[in-house]
């Protein structure tokens, strides 16, 4: 089940289940209220992933966690499954993560925070250990399966045990195994184990009898599928890296991918198992939109750092964006702009190209840079209709795709509603998708010969051109 179409503004969506085979119901309420008496004694877990220096959401995240912490009987548990930092964000890189560190410091004072290191944690420092050490100085637990290539020592703890409301929680951290996803400076210094193989080799030390097992895997959904059956019945999986909104619930596990860019979080309430009743799970999805209050000190810190680290040109207005749409609708709307501008029949952009959606209202060039994380010109080629149908069939893996059908990172596509398999169509993609080694994964076909549209503006430039009020 996927929640993309259920993420309406100013709503908190609750998914409840008893055990792993219980009936599920979807309800909405207008404000976060976790003070229900029947929830007292539960383990409450707030799940975040792939924030990517989405600074404008930090104030609402802090305010929400602070309010929730005040309502909780036991110390709140906040799990962040990698990629807090973003090296393409100019404020983040120029300040060496000043806003991210302030954000984490604030969280650590109101909750038990556990971070599973992602590949982008190495984006602001040349020594990965500096990031891990700074997290520990804030009393944040650091998890990682990454090991030193010289002495074999782990960058973070492979797993930790916590007591929450008299229940033992065992949290396991699995990091991204793709060496190419890390900055070159890190690649020879560290070993990035395959998560499935790592679990098989270390099962005895990673698992704990009687515990609630939570796996934070920052290696993407394909790896999730490999490791699900390696964990005890009742395990919870928090996915990351692929920027998905996805949910899987079976007799043996509960698995979530909690979006990207700080748009939302999932709150899991875990009830204790008894001799008569299985452990119960209630999931609440919270959107960090304008209907939530902001933490004012965080707001002021953001303004100060932007003034300090951004040029006048970067802070200049590119136009305005006044469409209130879901993040997934924003993706397809933006790809539609690319299709219209290039006058091609279809356009396909890999989903992790995109960071947080544009803010409502005034949009600076800096905001566009954060929305299009990796800029490039578009590349075009011609394909047969039968090939186009293959590409379209694996595009837009939102609510219309089951967990089993998903391929992990995917392309966001805009294409004709009717395709003649014998006709020829002109398609465009971004540079990453056009690369020969990536075509098969993203498009389902390969050996296509793309040509760069050198006469066309880049993706960021197209977004700026399409904004109302752009000069």
What does this structure look like?
With 471 residues, the protein is of the alpha/beta class. It folds into two domains: 4-287, Purple Acid Phosphatase, chain A, domain 2 (4-Layer Sandwich), CATH 3.60.21; 311-466, 5'-nucleotidase,  domain 2. Helix content is 29%, strand content 25%. Helix 7 links the parallel strand 11 and strand 12 (235-239). The two termini are 43 Å apart. Residues 1-31 have low confidence and may be disordered.
Give a brief description:
By secondary structure, this protein is of the alpha/beta class. Helix content is 29%, strand content 25%.
SSE layout and pairing:
Elements (H helix, E strand, L loop, with lengths): L11 E7 L6 E5 L13 E6 L9 H14 L5 E4 L9 H5 L3 H13 L1 E5 L11 H10 L3 E3 L3 E2 L10 E6 L2 E8 L9 H4 L2 E2 L3 H12 L5 E6 L3 H7 L7 E5 L5 E5 L3 E6 L5 E7 L9 E8 L8 H14 L2 H4 L1 E5 L5 H16 L3 E5 L10 E4 H7 L6 E7 H9 L17 E4 L9 E7 H4 L1 H8 L7 E2 L6 H8 L5
